[in-house]
Amino acid sequence: MISCTGLTKVYGKSSRKALDSVTFRITGKGIFVLIGRNGSGKTTMVRILSTELEPTSGTVTIDGVNVVENPAEIRNRIAIVPQEARTINWMTPMQTAFSYLLWRGFSRTEAKQRASNALEDLGMGKYAHSLNRTLSGGMKRKVLVATVLASEADIVFLDEPTTGLDPISRREFWEILRRTSANRFVFLTTHYLEEAEALADEIGILDVGRMVRIGTLQSLRKSIDFNFSLRIPVGQQFSMPRVERGEVFHSKEETHILTVEEEAYNISRELAKSGTRFTINPVSLEDIFFYLIGGADNMAGTVGGEDDGC
Ligand SMILES: Nc1ncnc2c1ncn2[C@@H]1O[C@H](COP(=O)(O)OP(=O)(O)O)[C@@H](O)[C@H]1O
Ligand SMILES: [Mg+2]
């Protein structure tokens, strides 16, 4: 169980709170995914939970242990791949994982065995002795993830591990994370909403340092008033059906309607009658995020656009 109470972080003399009184409790089982635009505070949260950074105020406990007061106790249990982590070019995947495990206190024999198993597990066995610099971006990420998974840590923090990966590598990663979460807790951040939808047992939505909503996908769905999403691409002449119970968003690409089942049915019928192209779906995490965070310009399938910095 991870519990945060009034967690606040102000960097230096900044007038802005990177985290602003964040309070939540999560089970610490399976996969927790923290989503939010760039700058919403995801990395700050990960750095505090993983004992790298002290909060300005508030408390954090992991299984009852206070993270700020007893960091050493927490460190034995956690492993982290920070957002900015890079492999060292002149090392091999095997050397990368092996040296990390030695640093964590494993014997040479056990470190070697664990490193080799983890690389094999992630399909990296045949590259174990290639130089990291010869590997693709996706494979380099796998090396970092294999390295932490080779450890004994039962809580693994991965800060945007899939940012910038191609769709196939990303899906391979999902498989790895699903397997990993069978016997470990994975705390993942991402700005890909479909990733959160595909992987998360629980989801937290962070915006401007505040936890806007937290829960299972099902409970997030229930927490908004609408259950259907209609999208009408621009570039068509159509008369906009009346929407009584719902929200309508206009963007450069589409008109987006969130509404209740009965109205969704009526609107669909009207649109179909006039030959208008549209799609209708039960609300997705993207719809929920869109509704809670708002602003068409904030969304283009991903949160925060294509920037893989921050
Ligand atoms: N080391 C730092 N010093 C000053 N401000 C920072 C630092 N790290 C992050 N911030 C600021 O804190 C806010 C949250 O950043 P961050 O936690 O990195 O968000 P995210 O990971 O969601 O992109 C942003 O406004 C960012 O500019
Ligand atoms: Mg970040």
Automatic annotation (TrEMBL):
<dbReference type="InterPro" id="IPR003439">
    <property type="entry name" value="ABC_transporter-like_ATP-bd"/>
</dbReference>
<protein>
    <submittedName>
        <fullName>ABC transporter ATP-binding protein</fullName>
    </submittedName>
</protein>
<keyword id="KW-0547">Nucleotide-binding</keyword>
<comment type="similarity">
    <text>Belongs to the ABC transporter superfamily.</text>
</comment>
<keyword id="KW-0813">Transport</keyword>
<dbReference type="GO" id="GO:0005524">
    <property type="term" value="F:ATP binding"/>
</dbReference>
<dbReference type="Pfam" id="PF00005">
    <property type="entry name" value="ABC_tran"/>
</dbReference>
<keyword id="KW-0067">ATP-binding</keyword>
<dbReference type="InterPro" id="IPR003593">
    <property type="entry name" value="AAA+_ATPase"/>
</dbReference>
<dbReference type="InterPro" id="IPR027417">
    <property type="entry name" value="P-loop_NTPase"/>
</dbReference>
<dbReference type="GO" id="GO:0016887">
    <property type="term" value="F:ATP hydrolysis activity"/>
</dbReference>
<dbReference type="InterPro" id="IPR017871">
    <property type="entry name" value="ABC_transporter-like_CS"/>
</dbReference>
<feature type="domain" description="ABC transporter">
    <location>
        <begin position="2"/>
        <end position="233"/>
    </location>
</feature>
<dbReference type="InterPro" id="IPR050763">
    <property type="entry name" value="ABC_transporter_ATP-binding"/>
</dbReference>
